[in-house]
Design brief:
single chain, 282 residues, alpha/beta, Rossmann fold, 2 domains, two-stranded antiparallel sheet, 10 helices, 7 strands, binds iron/sulfur cluster
Length: 282
Amino acid sequence: MDKPKIAIHKFASCDGCQLAFLNMGPELLELAAMVNIVHFVEAGMVAPQEEVDIAFIEGSISTEEDIERIKFIRKISRQVISLGACASSGGLQALRNLADGEQWLTELYPEPQYIQSLKNTHPLKKYIKVDFEVWGCPVNAGQIKQLISSLLLGAKPQQTRDRLCLECKRQQRVCTLVVKNRVVKHLVVKHLVVKQQETGQQACLGPITAAGCGALCPSVGRACYGCYGLADNPEPHALSMRLEGLGFIGREIAQKLLMIHSYEESLQKEAQQLSTKQRDIL
Ligand code: SF4
Ligand code: SF4
Ligand code: SF4
């Protein structure tokens, strides 16, 4: 029997999620014995036009050419998996959707007419059907191994959407929402990033984020920013009220909610309400 064919494609991204494949080390060789990796530029295989059983896609869609390419990949792939926060939600580069992209282009580039990007950047699901999303920024090798094993067995991949707080508490981590730590804050004042150190609780998104990373950030005393995607039934309004109670202002909370998830309607709605409330106060 022929081995299933796999492709790994890259769009607008930092390559960190593809590295999760390479980080599998010797297990990548075991994987290569079970499947036929036909396209993976970072590992030296180049065959972007070849039909495959599973296409992993890293990165978000940022240009007209990207739209054409992702639609073509969908046509030649039996299953399409979005790999990481960029592909699943737009990720960090979708932050530009919250700003005036045209203004930034003229301020940052001497010849902005040569930049051919869409007004906004979007996750794959805006343009094509995605069969499964793997979250993380970056994803980890364990998620990929589990996913490929399920697909090779013909089983539906399982992914926990429990809240990160459960995982964090099971590991007996100190809660950054409760305990005052030294926090480095980055404030943007007229495009300049100003660092401020202060002592206080941190705005952790653990209560609305899916478990699976092993509570990586809280384990080093840092708040979660939500890269493993939303948990089942997230309640962003309850979290934002808690954060307001700790003294965070609406704009800060809105930026935090949208940092990874600017495409999520429930978070957009909450961020909009926070911004409106703040305008009313000012
Ligand atoms: S999800 Fe994060 S690590 Fe993965 S490609 Fe995007 S920015 Fe890089
Ligand atoms: S994930 Fe964040 S909010 Fe939840 S328990 Fe851990 S530190 Fe506290
Ligand atoms: S703690 Fe949050 S931000 Fe950190 S790796 Fe886990 S999901 Fe991502």
